[in-house]
Design brief:
about 110 residues, mainly beta, 7-stranded mixed β-sheet, 4-stranded antiparallel β-sheet, 11 strands
Length: about 110
């Protein structure tokens, strides 16, 4: 089973940007659905974005600010996050085909 390692989180001021990476231990070429989720303190994990062969999808609150992409040659999925807001603060997790989870990476948006 593929293993996923998330990275790229950190502390950023409101309005700033971060790019999260999710590196897979094996080829992701055959993985149809890759996604990012997040979990804020005291809240349930929520879906953020999905990339699949037929398109990319985002939760309403991140549309126009976040972009999900994948590089099959590097076995990596990315989440570019721009215009970050304090409410984006959470631990971000990548997911493969709804089954495999990466370890989380903390994103904190604060002045």
């Amino acid at each position: 089973q593929v293993q996923l390692v998330g990275s790229g989180g950190g502390l950023v001021q409101p309005g700033g940007s971060l790019r999260l990476s999710c590196a897979a231990s094996d080829s992701i070429f055959s993985i149809n659905v890759m996604a990012w989720y997040r979990q804020a303190p005291g809240k349930e994990r929520e879906w953020v974005a999905t990339i699949r062969s037929i398109g990319r999808y985002y939760r309403d609150s991140v549309k126009g600010r976040f972009t999900i992409s994948r590089d099959n040659a590097k076995n990596t999925v990315y989440l570019q996050m721009n215009s970050l807001k304090p409410e984006d603060t959470a631990v971000y997790y990548c997911n493969a085909d709804g089954e495999v989870w990466g370890q989380g990476t903390q994103v904190t948006v604060s002045s």
